[in-house]
Amino acid sequence: MGVEPACPVLLLFLAGIIIWVVEAEVHYYDFVLAEKNFTRLCKTKSMLVVNGQFPGPTIYVHKGDTVFVNVHNHGDYGLTVHWHGVKQPRNPWSDGSAYITQCPIEPGHNFTYEVVFSEEEGTLWWHANSDWTRNTVHGAIVIYPPHGFSYPFPTPAGEQILILGTWFTYDVNKVIKEILRTGKDVPVSDAYIINGQPGDFCACSKEMAYRWQVDYGKTYLIRLVNALMNEEFFFAIAGHDLIVVGIDGSYLKPFTTSYVMLSNGQTMDVLVKTNRSPGRYYMAGRQYYTDNLFFTGYDKTNASAILEYRGKYDRLSSPFFPEKLPSYTDYDSATQFRKRLKSLASKEHPIDVPRNVTTQMYITASMDKIVHNFSAYMDYTLLSSLNNISWVNPSTDVLQAYYRNLSGFYTLDFPDEPPYYFDFVADLRDDSTHPLKGTKVKVLEYGEEVEIVFQSTNLLNASDEHSMYIHGHKFYVLGEGYGNFNSTRDTETYNLVDPPYLSTASLPVKGWLTIRFKANNPGVWAMHCQEGRHLIWGMNTVLIVKNGSNPETSIRTPPANMPSCASYPSIHKALEVSAE
């Protein structure tokens, strides 16, 4: 439950001028993780959820507020909780990235996160951050403008959170545990869901579809969260246009569209005008599939919920379905939608695109495998990599080791470019690059302006879109395209005027993506593909941003109750030595 302190805004009268003084609020929540039975698709299973809810509770704040969340783990898995898209200035201790900023909260233990909302405004989300536990442990974060300030669009008559998710009819965490041991492929989901329900097109689900009642002639705000495990997602509402106004906790130049496409882990704010004939209309979505087209067994569920007008009309007729919802493999619709994303870039919401780049990186994102030669047969382990390095979690979190100057847990040699150059997007059925497994990080000076070009490769003939995400920093997306990146031709297409300001962005299949950001948040921050299967296979690295020149630009001291790396006794000896 959140606690709402009173009197958040004071009015000062000085020389006849009204000055708004905004006092940030402090909120407190308790998250109790425990198993609970849920029935979907005609089958009942037990799964880990927060406070008995699925999706989990929503956190409500205003820009500038701080939230303390005490997480009590009564489940069977050690895990962390991450606050997706929240910058957490100088506070990596509460970022919640397993083995990067903390060790997991073990069953029977608790940990209190301090979540600081600084520049974010709009919709974000929180989720578990250990293996695939986020599949059932997640919820929305609503960040209102500061008290006394309004949206950069007319205040809506109401709002609705729609969380897009993935459903498995069994405990997928047990399956993933075995996959991590064997290195084989992950399972295909049984359905997609909206606010926990598959909707009318799935077995045993027709009467359980999520319903949202609206009044005619109003404008509503929809807060969309892509909480799927692996997929990007198309979404549309039958008969209604959507006005996109925000993404990843930042405002956009509004534009009207018949559909939206959300990268995995992305959030989006859209307005909808209820100006159609009173009736019932499906709010529907399906995955945007970019993997190998020879595989046709991907999840083709049309997840659905119902927008329902109040009033008198024939409620026995079936709801209308969105005719303009793109097909599963509609690359053009996905690309054209992303091209329309532009920052609002107003006086009240300015942008600051880095122009003096001091660090340039060219990072390949690849699917890989390691072949094992046994005496009687050959086998392989699936991996994914960045610049041919497949991430391995250390025995304690990188932040603890970095802060206490402990050696032996990571190395400082993550490369700025791939070890091999070739036609990255050609059909390459074999992997001859021999990926390395390691815990390699990149160190940045405080205040550096960084440009990264991500390049998708087609190793194993398995190019796929990747939802690239950086903890602790948002970035400007300057451009994207298909094919191999060309530093002469493609830089001419960069948007330096009003690029979108994101925390998660799509790297196109067989293509490239360029981002820029300022490394102004000291700490240890993960950079990875958000999609669950790529992340557990190693498409991850870490950026260490060094302290600045004063305490205000340096990492805060750690809280006293950080979760212990109890299963790794070697760390205790190292900590004792560092404390002497």
Assembly form of the protein: single chain
Order of strands in the sheet with most strands: 12-11-14-19-16-17
Largest sheet: 6 strands, mixed
Q: What share of the residues lie within helices?
A: under 10%
CATH fold-type name of the largest domain: Immunoglobulin-like
Rg, nearest Å: 23 Å
Number of strands: 34
The low-pLDDT segments are: 1-21, 567-580
Q: What overall form do the CA principal axes indicate? A: globular
Instruction: Label the CATH architecture of the largest domain.
Output: Sandwich
Q: Return the structural class.
A: mainly beta
Mean pLDDT: 91
CATH secondary-structure class of the largest domain:
Mainly Beta
Tell me the count of domains. 3
Distance between the termini: 41 Å
Helix segment tally: 5
EC number: 1.10.3.2
Protein name: Laccase
Keywords: Apoplast, Copper, Glycoprotein, Lignin degradation, Metal-binding, Oxidoreductase, Repeat, Secreted, Signal
Main location: secreted
